[in-house]
Specification:
The chain has 357 residues and is of the alpha/beta class. It is built from six helices and 18 strands. The strands form three sheets. The chain has a ten-stranded mixed sheet, with helices on one face. α5 packs across α6.
């Protein structure tokens, strides 16, 4: 089963409607000392009530019949630094998505050094790449070659010479690389971490599951959409980049059984949320599937499956802020963000978390 999803709604909202003022010092440069000791803002969607605690206390908000759904995608060392084969000039690649034939869609800097037919080398010749075509939006489709006797596959090459692609707003490199992976990351393929999951420790997850709460893993490989800002005035004119997802029959069945018994479906992060909303029908039944989704969720969207969401604090005017505003209401969400700024919450990937329920 292959699903191609790109759902839209009608709205008159502008990108500027999702702006908020964020002091630079609130952008977290390093994670909390312990994953589950980051702060947690709990928002009740119906009453608008807000409570403030630490992430470990999330277990007290969950009911035994609830179901947590996480994104088990693993961040790969997708940033490559190399040289052009023609004249030895420096080149930087960010690998975004692997095609079925093994080629990669990539961001290239500077793009003027990446015309069709141009070749690059990385890691003192360990890896070579050639530009096959200029893809939609200016990205490059690149074919790679390497010593297949020395390396078992492209991921083993990346482990040897690549770097984790931390977002540009994180200027510090002092955090251990494993802190930019969730403890349940399994399937390689993302260019960025599903950051809401960074707050969970294995011990906390064990406590939650021991209380009877369901736990399931889906997959969405995070690509260009995480890095690309909304440049259109009307938000509905923004085109979402498609990302590979997978949800198994076993996971779909357990989700549907839990919801039928009155449990809430709690998405851990916007990526898990997008998978669930991509595969849910109009009756809220979740179906197994694998394919690509370009679903764009913003105010006016009617959620079909997700009842609650754990998420970080997102960039102004971003598609992620639009998604959480669709769930909680734009005015409520922007007011919550103003309160978080006043209370000096830490923002973005290494920052604090919010439970919207």
């Amino acid at each position: 089963m292959n699903l191609i999803v790109n759902e839209r709604t009608k709205t008159e909202l502008r990108t500027s409607d999702f702006y908020y003022d964020l002091p630079e010092e609130l952008i977290a440069q390093t994670p909390a000392d312990r994953r589950d000791m980051s702060r947690l803002l709990i928002l009740d969607r119906e009453s608008g009530e807000r409570r403030h605690t630490h992430f470990h206390a999330i277990k007290d908000e969950l009911r035994p019949e609830d179901m947590l759904v996480v994104n088990a995608s693993k961040v790969i060392p997708a940033r490559l630094f190399g040289k052009t084969e023609k004249n030895g000039r420096e080149i930087e690649l960010l690998l975004l998505r692997q095609y079925d034939n093994g080629e990669w869609e990539s961001l290239v800097r500077p793009g003027k050094r990446a015309k069709v037919g141009d070749r690059f080398t990385f890691g003192d010749g360990i890896l070579s790449g050639e530009v096959i075509e200029v893809a939609l939006g200016g990205n490059r489709r690149i074919a790679f070659s390497y010593d297949r006797e020395r390396f078992t596959g492209i991921y083993s090459v990346l482990d040897a010479i690549g770097e984790l692609p931390l977002p540009p707003y994180i200027t510090s490199r002092s955090a251990a690389p494993e802190r930019y992976q969730t403890v349940y990351a399994k399937v390689e393929g993302s260019a960025a971490a599903p950051t809401a999951g960074l707050h969970f420790t294995r011990e906390l997850l064990d406590e939650i599951r021991a209380s009877g709460v369901g736990y399931a893993e889906v997959l969405l490989h995070i690509g260009l959409g995480t890095f690309r800002p909304v440049k259109t005035d009307r938000i509905e004119d923004h085109l979402m980049h498609r990302e590979h997802f997978c949800i198994t029959e076993a996971v779909a069945s357990e989700i549907n059984a839990r919801r039928a018994a009155g449990g809430r479906l709690i998405a851990i992060g916007t990526t898990s949320c997008r998978v669930l909303e991509s595969v849910a029908d109009e009756n809220g039944i979740v179906h197994a599937g694998e394919g690509e989704t370009g679903i764009f969720i913003y105010p006016g969207y009617r959620f079909k499956a997700v009842d609650a969401l754990v998420t970080n604090f997102h960039l102004p005017e971003s598609t992620l802020l639009m998604l959480v505003s669709a769930l909680a209401g734009k005015d409520t969400m922007l007011d919550v963000y103003r309160e978080a700024v006043e209370m000096k919450y830490r923002f973005f990937s290494f920052g604090d978390a919010m439970l919207i329920q």
